[in-house]
Write a sequence for this structure.
């Protein structure tokens, strides 16, 4: 898949510098990793059948969601919110039918290990361009109390995803108690505006001139709030 990303960058004559971030849409990563699933072969469990009647979804599709999830968090007609095996709280476990070939029973799953995928892409791009390149893999999600989806990071490499400002002082000398900045998510949201959600065909975005710490020890898992600190679960 790195070859396709390199071609996309070179086709637009983009100049790559040390410290640049490449944002890659989850969908092309999942496609390159053949994360397609034919739900026609799934046998729905009793739980899937019950949920299917409550939210008016195909029970085989519900079973696919349950297979990718730790647990169901919330549901209502047409919507199933789960905790994905990767830790994300996501509608339908991130399983998608949009922007793929429209075969009735084919769906697309999230990458199996998005941080590992980002690492491989980062290494390939850095080697090709002879630059120190960071990578985030982006998806979209809804949010409590807000309309509209926004981009967020499901995989990353070589970027400090979470900037901890606790213990520092604000403009008036007050000590910050809880401030942590989700750098990777903010960059993903900005990139998502350019990628679009329909037929824009722009799955790769180059982010330049944002100053952050390149950090191989940090990954997207640092952005996931633990359940005991989450007021919405």
């Amino acid at each position: 898949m790195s070859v396709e990303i390199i071609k996309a960058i070179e086709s637009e004559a983009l100049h790559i510098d040390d410290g640049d971030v490449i944002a890659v849409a989850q969908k092309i990563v999942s496609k390159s990793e053949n994360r397609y699933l034919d739900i026609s072969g799934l046998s729905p469990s009793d739980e899937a059948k019950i949920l299917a009647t409550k939210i008016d979804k195909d029970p085989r599709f519900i079973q696919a969601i349950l297979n990718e999830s730790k647990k169901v968090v919330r549901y209502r007609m047409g919507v199933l919110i789960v905790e994905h095996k990767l830790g994300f709280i996501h509608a339908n476990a991130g399983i998608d039918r949009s922007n793929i070939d429209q075969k009735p029973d084919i769906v697309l799953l999230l990458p199996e290990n998005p941080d590992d995928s980002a690492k491989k892409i980062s290494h390939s791009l850095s080697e090709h361009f002879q630059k120190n390149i960071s990578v985030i893999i982006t998806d979209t999600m809804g949010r409590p109390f807000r309309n509209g989806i926004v981009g967020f990071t499901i995989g990353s490499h070589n970027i400090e995803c979470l900037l901890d400002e606790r213990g520092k002082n604000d403009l008036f000398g007050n000590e910050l108690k809880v401030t942590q900045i989700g750098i990777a998510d903010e960059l993903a949201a900005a990139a998502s505006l350019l990628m679009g959600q329909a037929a824009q065909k722009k799955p790769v975005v180059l982010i330049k001139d944002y100053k952050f710490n390149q950090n191989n020890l940090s990954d997207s898992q640092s952005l996931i709030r633990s359940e005991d600190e989450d007021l919405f679960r």
Remarks:
- The mean pLDDT is 89.
